[in-house]
Hints:
2 helices, alpha+beta
Amino acid sequence: MKGNMNNMMKQMQKMQKKMEQAQEELQEMTFEATSGGGMVKVTASGKREITDVQVSEDVVDPDDVDMLQDLILTATNDVLQQIEDKTNDTMGQFTKGMNLPGGMF
């Protein structure tokens, strides 16, 4: 019984190291999203930090600021969703079959 427990602990430690490595790799990734046919581009790191926002001059209309704000929000939410999806795909491989509540890795 003790041998099985030691073996299981070793496997858990290996899985933990792989999880940590996967998290580090995710944090180093860069994600981009656009809206308005590429008129607004938002770039974020895997750490969920917005690193760049580019707005085409063609979309800047002082009489329609609401549209510009909507385009920025759309691109920002899209890039954050991309990060979330990639994180779930990557980290989900470690939690398959564990029946953990959503969002728990």
